Amino acid sequence: MNPDITRERQNATFDVEKLTHILNGGPEKTKRRREIESMVFSDPDFKEEDPNFLSRSERYDQAVKKSAQMILKLREYGIADPEEIYCYKNMVNGNQHEALGLHFVMFLPTLYSQCDPQQSKKWIPLAESFQALGTYAQTEMGHGQSWTYP
């Protein structure tokens, strides 16, 4: 922990732990978040080179490996609750982009909102278990171009 943050928390005029519980949604959720945090920070599989000193290709390879390892660990630990998955992912990735980000922020929400019941029954379990992965592909030829019309 950063010593400045530790000092500020010790000098706070309010109960830091109580505020932590409020922000996490209660004492049980704080406890679970800390368990997940400990799982990630003590896991040697998530110790890595600083991406700032890697080439673009090396950063991509590192991110894909980390995402694949994260999925395996989620399964191993039995983490299936969406909030806990989100917490685990944030601990693993820190402030780095995730290789499977589009799967989580575009593909799954699209399935949840646009599938009919029959499609949901087939595709959502596959996507949630990472047996089917979604991404994004731009199909318009002129995407991103600026056109001026007379």
List the helices and strands and how they pair.
Elements: H1 3-10, H2 16-24, H3 27-41, H4 56-77, H5 82-93, H6 101-114, H7 117-128
What value does the Rg take, in angstroms? 20 Å
User: How helical, in percent, are the residues?
Assistant: 55-70%
* CATH architecture label name of the largest domain: Orthogonal Bundle
How many helical elements?
7
List the helices and strands in order: HHHHHHH
Query: What does the overall shape look like?
Result: globular
Measured distance between first and last alpha carbons: 60 Å
**How many domains in all?**
2
Poorly predicted regions? none
Helix/strand/pairing category: mainly alpha
CATH superfamily of the largest domain: Acyl-CoA dehydrogenase/oxidase, N-terminal domain
Tell me what portion of residues adopts beta-strand conformation: under 5%
What would the CATH topology of the largest domain be? Butyryl-Coa Dehydrogenase, subunit A, domain 1
- The chain-level mean pLDDT equals 85
CATH class designation of the largest domain: Mainly Alpha
The major beta sheet can be summarized as: none
Number of strands: 0
What can you see in these coordinates?
This protein is mostly helical. It has 2 domains: 14-99, Butyryl-Coa Dehydrogenase, subunit A, domain 1, CATH 1.10.540.10; 100-134. Helix content is 61%, strand content 0%. The termini are far apart. The model has no long low-confidence stretch (mean pLDDT 85).
